[in-house]
Amino acid sequence: MKKNKNHIISFRLNDYEFAELLLKISDANGVQMLKPSVFARGSLISAQVRANDSELEKYRVFIAGQVSRQIQQIAGALETANKSDKTDDELLIELVEKIDLIMDEMNALLSPLDARTEWR
What we know:
It is a single chain. By secondary structure, this protein is mainly alpha-helical. It folds into two domains: about 15-45, no CATH class; about 55-110. It is built from four helices and no strands. It has helices spanning about 15-25, 35-45, 55-85, 90-110. The radius of gyration is 26 Å and the shape is elongated.
């Protein structure tokens, strides 16, 4: 059974966007393989869009700031120890382990979430 298409959606493209569209609907020889409307419809139907959660984004920025400050403190401690010739292997290993832990925490906290806008 054929479903009637009753809704019209129109939009404008600049020259660059139109050229990009033509590249996507044409073959290697420049022959148009799809109508722009067919490509747009297929792209829109298969795309998933999710809205940003601004509170979540604020939290993530706050966490990133906290992690950044911790890393700066470690780097400062290492620089101070280095200037006073008090660095030893144990201190370096301890600081590297702390930095690795902080980086792991930061990566986990700042990894993409479903609540972020994404196109598939």
